[in-house]
Each structure stands twice: as structure tokens, then as C-alpha cells.
UniProtKB/TrEMBL annotation:
Ranges for domain D-isomer specific 2-hydroxyacid dehydrogenase NAD-binding: 111-298
A Pfam cross-reference name: 2-Hacid_dh
Record key words, sorted: NAD, Oxidoreductase
Gene3D superfamilies the UniProt entry points to: NAD(P)-binding Rossmann-like Domain (3.40.50.720)
Similarity-based family: Belongs to the D-isomer specific 2-hydroxyacid dehydrogenase family.
Enzyme Commission (EC) number: 1.1.1.28
Protein name: D-lactate dehydrogenase
Record InterPro entries: D-isomer_2_OHA_DH_cat_dom, D-isomer_DH_CS, D-isomer_DH_CS1, D-isomer_DH_NAD-bd, D-LDH-like, NAD(P)-bd_dom_sf
Residue span, D-isomer specific 2-hydroxyacid dehydrogenase catalytic domain: 3-329
GO molecular function, one term: NAD binding
Length: 334
């Protein structure tokens, strides 16, 4: 099957090509460009499009792809909040995703943000390289005995909860579908407000949905413990960034670790180091000494990229063979 692969980085090309060699037959055409209204023509002749998290999959793009004959959009991600599901259905385009590639990768990245922010190893590294061995400003706290609130205990959140229990943390959680393993390990499920009030660290591991959009807003920040740490490796819009900035300025939020950002589509995955960042909200975030941002790299491990490539190709193969991908995206409003 001719597949137009958008937002193709060198690592995507390497891993997809390797996985395709093991299961030959797909004609992968790699395009560095993001999928957007101006780039849909690159999919001419393709029956499938392979897209990532910051590709545009709104109604105009999906209609343009359908008009070109595209019948399948294979997401190289678990999240599908960027897809207009109703428009895809109306356009007759099937959608599939990679529901689980390495939940450990993202859980461990959340932990990396927690440990780095807490012990300030990023700042210590820079200091020591400059010959500055002062400790002032590098004080952290013991994770042992602290309460961590995990919002969303699905594949990623449940692994993070287990890791944190290993550190001797008390883990509380908020999820409409409690995880049996977490329950068995003594994780207490709370409503959102009591979780926010109890937690020294709040970490977001839920999907972006209509219910979780701006879940952490001014109201939620006001309910957090003064000085609490907030971590988001899920999707940017689960937090209201402006409210978080207000929380940082007031000191209610003691530190912030982000792997995702509401408007990351304009920034992440590109080298913009020679350009002016036009996003004033993001630029403000960068000025805080207690904010640590990574550019959506939670998934970025060799294990995860191998699994993403293999599952993506298996989805496409199943669609070609059986008319249905292995891992269809749930329907509208799912
Ligand atoms: P999952 O579907 O296994 O788990 C999500 C959990 O969130 C479920 O248990 C669900 O019941 C819960 N949830 C739904 N609505 C909620 C709400 N209102 N409040 C609290 N919990 C709620 O998903 P998984 O694999 O654990 O991934 C979670 C999210 O992480 C993905 O949707 C994606 O947005 C993000 N992600 C980020 C990556 C990164 O590179 N930073 C990579 C992969 C995923």
C-alpha cells in the first residue's frame, strides 16, 4: 500500500524502514512536512496517510485527503485528540493508532521531570561546568513519604504509581476507572479536589478530552497545596497555561515540569534556535527558574519507537488485508 508519512524525522524514517523490511509490501513515502491544508497534495496517490501528534487532522484536511483517495489515517501516537473524529467518519476515512507502545517510556519521563525539578540536577550540571560549586538554590526534598496525586491511572499512570510506591511515596489517584492493580497496592482513589489538597506532587497522566480540557485551571490551582509540584506529560491543554503562570507567580505552584504545551504545534519537534519565539505565554514560562520543559519526548525511547513502527505497519497491513486496522481509534465522543 502506498503510504504518505508526514512529519517524518530521521528517527521515524529509520524505525519505519526497519519495521517495513521485516514485513515488506508497503510503499512508504516520507515527507518532512507537517500535514496541514497546504501539504495535503503530498498524499496524492496514497491510500494511507501516517501522521503524528502535531499534524493537522481537522475537517478541511480530512476532506482534502478523502478527495485524493486516502482511506486510512494511521496515527503514530496513542493520543487522538487532534483528530476531528466526526469529520473522518463523514469522509469515509478509517483511523487507527498505537494504543500502547511503551507506557514505561512516558512514566519514566514523568519521573525524570520530578527528580530533576526536585534535586535541580539541570542547574547543578550547568553550575559545575562553570566551576561554581555553591549549593545555595539547589535544595530539594525527600520523595520518600511525600504524597503524589496521579490523575489518570491507565497504562502510563498505573506504572508511574508503581514506581512512586517504590520510592516510598504515598500515592493517591483520581480516575473514573480505578485500576485494580493500583487498588491492590493501596493507592487511594479520591475526587479531584481532595487529591489536589493532599498532594505534594500532582502528575497528569489522563487523555485530553472535553472533560479534561483545562482540568487544572485557576480553581484547581487554588486547591493545591502551597508549593506543590505540577507535572504534565499527557497533553498540553489539560492545563490552562495562563492559570499555571498565575499560580507560579503567587507561589502556589512550587515547581512545574512539562513535556507538553497547549500550543506546542507551533514549536515542538523543530529547531527554532535561530528564530524569535512568537508565543509570549511560552516565553514567560521559560523565564521561571522552577520550570522545566522538555519538547514532547516522553515517548522517545528505542523500545517505544520500535513498537510504534511495528504497530503502525501492522495496522496498515491489517487494513489492507481485512479492511479494518488492528487498533481502530474509538468513534466520535469516545
Ligand atoms: P490510557 O487510556 O491507558 O489511560 C488514561 C486513563 O485516564 C484512563 O484510566 C482513564 O480512565 C483516565 N481518565 C479519563 N478521563 C479522566 C479524567 N477526567 N480524570 C482522570 N482520569 C481520567 O492512556 P495512557 O496510555 O496511559 O496515556 C495517557 C495519555 O498520555 C494519552 O492520552 C496521551 O495524551 C499521553 N501520552 C503522552 C506521551 C508523551 O510523549 N508525552 C506519549 C503517550 C501518551
Amino acid at each position: 500500500m502506498h503510504v504518505a508519512v508526514f512529519s517524518a524525522k530521521p528517527y521515524d524514517i529509520a524505525y519505519l524502514t526497519a519495521a517495513n523490511a521485516a514485513d515488506p509490501g508497503h510503499d512508504l513515502r516520507f515527507h518532512a512536512a507537517r500535514l496541514a491544508p497546504g501539504t495535503t497534495a503530498l498524499a496524492r496517490g496514497a491510500e494511507a496517510v501516517c501522521a503524528f501528534v502535531n499534524d493537522r487532522l481537522d475537517r478541511p484536511v480530512l476532506e482534502a485527503l478523502a478527495a485524493l483517495g486516502v482511506r486510512l489515517v494511521a496515527l503514530r501516537s496513542a493520543g487522538f485528540n487532534h483528530v476531528d473524529l466526526a469529520a473522518a467518519k463523514a469522509a469515509g476515512i478509517a483511523l487507527c493508532r498505537v494504543p500502547a507502545y511503551s507506557p514505561h517510556a512516558v512514566a519514566e519521563h514523568s519521573l525524570a521531570l520530578i527528580l530533576t525539578l526536585n534535586r535541580k540536577t539541570h542547574r547543578a550540571w550547568a553550575r559545575v561546568r562553570e566551576g561554581n560549586f555553591e549549593l545555595d538554590g539547589l535544595m530539594g526534598f525527600d520523595l520518600y513519604g511525600k504524597t503524589v496525586g496521579v490523575i489518570g491511572t491507565g497504562r502510563i499512570g498505573s506504572i508511574l504509581a508503581r514506581i512512586l510506591l517504590g520510592f516510598g511515596c504515598r500515592v493517591v489517584a483520581h480516575d473514573p476507572n480505578p485500576d485494580p492493580d493500583c487498588l491492590a497496592r493501596g493507592v487511594a482513589y479520591l475526587e479531584l479536589d481532595p487529591l489536589l489538597a493532599a498532594s505534594d506532587i500532582v502528575t497528569l497522566q489522563c487523555p485530553l478530552t472535553a472533560q479534561t480540557h483545562h482540568l487544572i485551571d485557576d480553581r484547581a490551582v487554588a486547591r493545591m497545596k502551597t508549593g506543590a509540584m505540577l507535572i504534565n506529560t499527557s497533553r498540553g491543554a489539560v492545563i490552562d497555561t495562563r492559570a499555571i503562570i498565575r499560580g507560579l507567580k503567587s507561589g502556589r505552584i512550587g515547581s512545574l515540569g512539562l513535556d507538553v504545551y497547549e500550543e506546542e504545534g507551533e514549536l515542538f519537534f523543530e529547531d527554532l534556535s535561530n528564530r524569535i519565539i512568537p508565543d509570549d505565554v511560552f516565553a514567560r514560562l521559560l523565564t521561571f527558574p522552577n520550570v522545566l520543559i522538555t519538547g514532547h519526548q516522553g515517548f522517545f525511547t528505542t523500545e517505544a519507537l520500535t513498537a510504534i513502527a511495528e504497530t503502525t505497519l501492522a495496522n496498515i497491513t491489517a487494513y489492507e488485508r481485512d479492511g479494518a486496522p488492528l487498533h481502530p481509534v474509538p468513534g466520535p465522543l469516545a
